[in-house]
Amino acid sequence: MGTGSTLPVTLHEYKVRASLLIKDLDSSDTARATRAAERMRALPFFASLSLGEVLARRDTVQHKHGLAVIAREAGHATWAELKQTVEDGPRTLDTRAFFRKVHAVFLNRWFSTYEEAARSRETQGGFLFPFGAQCFVCEADFLQALGIDPRDADWERMGRDWVRPRDAAAKERLESKLVALGYGGHHDAR
């Protein structure tokens, strides 16, 4: 069954949703057409119209209007914004950026498997991160040199383990902070 994660919605899927919305608006099924008209009222042009007025003007509704509604329903102001977001992919932590930004010498512990890194973190402390197919464990001073607060309570909540965090919400909060600091890369989910 599912693991709780969902695949990102593709641009094609959003376009299909817009087409289905327009199809619903044109439907002879009154309930279906009325639900679609209500959704169309998310757009400023249609917002001031009654449902009956939206339905009366349905022959003027274009595919671009459907795209705009779908974009708003997905949390974006415009179709162009949604399209750009999907094409860019989600931003996630890019640990390679750590090593492009720090100019001091730190003795991080490197491991070829997660299990070795996790044992080292448990016995010697530190913060565990992935790096390609490997893992490394760094100390708080390494994070501080990067401008990252190692005292943030979310590090403890997630067990200082980026690969297998105890608390996924804590990791998400930290990831947002680190991406905002410039340690983000695009995750290719296509």
- What's the number of structural domains? 2
Shape, please? Answer: elongated
Rg, please? 24 Å
Which runs of at least 5 residues are low in confidence (pLDDT < 50)? Answer: 1-6
Q: Give the SSE string.
A: HHHHHHEHEHEEHHHE
List the helices and strands and how they pair.
Layout: H1 11-25, H2 30-40, H3 44-47, H4 51-56, H5 63-73, H6 79-88, E1 91-93, H7 96-101, E2 109-111, H8 114-124, E3 127-131, E4 134-138, H9 140-145, H10 153-157, H11 168-183, E5 184-186
Antiparallel strand pairs: 1-5, 2-4, 3-4
Helix pairs in contact: 1-2, 1-5, 5-6
Question: What would you say this structure looks like, in words?
Answer:
- The chain is elongated.
- β3 and β4 form a beta hairpin.
- It has 190 residues and is mainly alpha-helical.
- Strands 2-4-3 form a three-stranded antiparallel β-sheet.
- The protein has helices at residues 11-25, 30-40, 44-47, 51-56, 63-73, 79-88, 96-101, 114-124, 140-145, 153-157, 168-183; strands at residues 91-93, 109-111, 127-131, 134-138, 184-186.
- α1 (11-25) packs across α2 and α1 packs across α5 (63-73).
- The protein has two domains: 11-88, no CATH class; 91-186, no CATH class.
- Helix content is 53%, strand content 10%.
